[in-house]
Amino acid sequence: PAPGLLQVVKQCVRVPVFVMIRPRGGDFLYSDREVEVMKADIRLAKLHGADGLVFGALTEDGRIDTELCTALLAVCRPLPVTFHRAFDMVHDPLVALETLISLGFERVLTSGCDSSALEGLSLIKRLAEQVSVPWGGITERNLQRILEGSTASEFHCSARSARDSGMKFRNPNVAMGASFSAPEYSIKVADVAKVRTLNAIAKNIL
User: Fold this and answer.
1) Which of 18, 67, 123, 204 could connect to 112 by a Cys-Cys bridge, CB 3.0–4.6 Å?
2) What pTM was computed for the model?
3) What is the pLDDT of residues 9-40, one digit of tens each?
4) What are the extents of the domains in the chain?
5) CATH class held by domain 1-109
């Protein structure tokens, strides 16, 4: 997020806010210039009140980039750090988890190296015995099964819904961004009702 978004979020919520450090979409193999951006983003996030950081980096052969992660962790400290879903693209998840623990990551966001946390539940259960946070395709319909089946004590989900734009004039001839981007006149927002429902389910189980 931009520093402005982080500042406003910090003013509006009382829960800890962890900031994603991701200079671009695509893979998790970063150039030297992209690493410079990540380090600068970490410093800005800390300056503007981040309570923790989230990032991930891999080598070209699908292993944890220990050299880069160590360098980024040093910039993040003393804040806690989570390794994001780059984990789901590793060659060997059990070896990768051991590496992340040894480096000092507190959490791992993962769908169990599958299309969603429900499909990857068996691996999440094995990982959660050490450190992990289920992520991916979690909804009000499957959260209970995932928490009960994984022994995880935390979870991550978007809990979003689409809201129609307030624009009355709409130019049908222009699209802002690539064809797979969200439509200009549909806005993704956090859904308060979904958050409350998910919270209630989790509190009932945990």
Assistant:
1) 123
2) 0.84
3) 999 999 999 999 999 999 999 999 999 999 99
4) 1-109
5) alpha beta
